[in-house]
Design a protein that fits this description.
Blueprint (H helix, E strand, L loop, with lengths): L1 H30 L1 E3 L10 E3 L11 E7 L5 E7 L3 E8 L2 E11 L5 E5 L4 E6 L2 E6 L2 E10 L1
Antiparallel strand pairs: 1-2, 3-4, 3-10, 4-5, 5-6, 6-7, 7-8, 8-9, 9-10
């Protein structure tokens, strides 16, 4: 009788430790993934971001544009996801903002964090918007 009781207790403990291990593993998994379950069934629809191997220096590109009114736009594009934009008139910087890549139907669009400015480029042209109004357009890339 004691053997059966110890066997039952042993199986119960083994099952509990296995279950706790699975719970811990799931929590660890959810800590590195975005849960899209909406709180109803946590972890049912996770999406995970695979970390890119970091290179010693980011992939960076400098782009210059000349506008018809002699305004210059200088853009520093970092890893296709982030831009730093400087707008110059007569060599003096008048506007500077940083932006992150956002969804666009055509071309590449970058919104400033405060959503006040937009840098939008397609081909070798760009435009700058401020508060949903175009303030510079038809600016051509120069070498």
């Amino acid at each position: 009788m004691k053997r059966i009781l110890f066997l039952i207790i042993g199986i119960a403990l083994l099952g509990a430790s296995f279950s706790a291990g699975m719970w811990w593993q799931k929590q660890l998994y959810l800590d590195i993934c975005l849960d899209l379950g909406g709180g109803v069934n946590p972890g049912e629809y996770p999406i995970c971001v695979i970390e890119k191997t970091a290179s010693s220096e980011p992939n960076e590109k400098q782009i210059s544009y000349a506008c018809s009114d002699s305004t210059q736009i200088k853009v520093r594009l970092i890893e296709q996801d982030f831009v730093q934009v400087s707008i110059l008139q007569q060599g003096a910087e008048i506007i500077q903002f940083s932006g992150i890549h956002s969804i666009s139907a055509s071309g590449a669009k970058y919104d400033s964090s405060d959503k006040q400015y937009v840098y939008w480029t397609k081909g070798d042209e760009c435009m700058i918007m401020k508060n949903d109004e175009i303030i510079y357009s038809g600016c051509k890339e120069v070498n």
